[in-house]
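Anyone have tokens for Taurine catabolism dioxygenase? Sequence:
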Amino acid sequence: MPESRNLDNGQRLFSVKDLPSSVLIEDAHKDREGNVHVLFQPENHSSVFSQKWLRENCYELNSHFEDRSEKQKKLWQKDSFDNGLPFISYESMRSDDTSKVLALRSLRDSGFFVLNDVPTQDGQVLKVISELGFTRETNYGALFEVRTEINPNNLAYTNLGLGSHTDNPYRDPVPTVQLLHCLESSTKGGDSILVDGFKAASILRDESKENFLTLTSSWINYRFTDSKTDLRSRVPMIELNDNNEIIKVRYNNRSIDTIKVPKDKMRSFYKAYRHWSEVIERDELKIQFRLSEGSLMLFDNTRVMHARTKFSKTGKRHLQGAYTDLDGLYSLLNTLEGKNK
Ligand SMILES: [Fe+2]
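Reply: yep, here.
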């Protein structure tokens, strides 16, 4: 072990090509503590494995790491939150690790949480990110303003309703977490809607395996352009892992580019796309709530779709948004749960 890994950080010190192509085990025995000692030839290299390590790393038990799959999540729809939505006090999340763990578990399992009583100060959304991870800057800046603008470069900056979508599928990699912080809210309408995209994809699979497979195997283009920007991606709407489990969804009607799938697949693509759109718009999948002043919602942008109802031109609605990434937030959760020990 000391020869093969750095003692301080546990990182491996040799590459696979340093190993002989044929390796033999000359001797293997268990000591009194249960550790297994293995002598490898021709290198005459001795390794010691604890029972715990062997169990955790046994590939026959298939206990592989996977924290993004639908199998690791609690899929939800409108009636899943009879005990209330995951609203958490910002002050308690800041001062108490137990609340922070609850918030991050809610993000991991349900794909979102909402913080209450966040100070309505300019740039506060970036402070919240700094307490959890790191800001992912984009062409919109470190943060972006969501309020009505004259000649907006994005429909988000109008008073129109927005259908359910994930943000920025035209980026590769996509920002995996979005935060929206409400600074002012005196308009009529403008409610927030969330839909569990994994649930919507699983319903599509239940109703039509064929349509589901079409969307997992059709790679399509998303695009965003303005005078200074031209962002493009080529990705599937529903992404699976090696066990055919859903791990990511991308859905954004506003930024889907011309569909370029093979001619003989075009009809089946549109059939599947229409079917999934219809599932996503079902009322029984939507949770709707008002993001009041000082509330901040944080959601997994690879899973949870967001939407808003249209709002009046009178009154003010001002949100500040920003992006961060799941890996940093999961890292914090794993550390708080002691998984790095
Ligand atoms: Fe959005």
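The radius of gyration is 24 Å.
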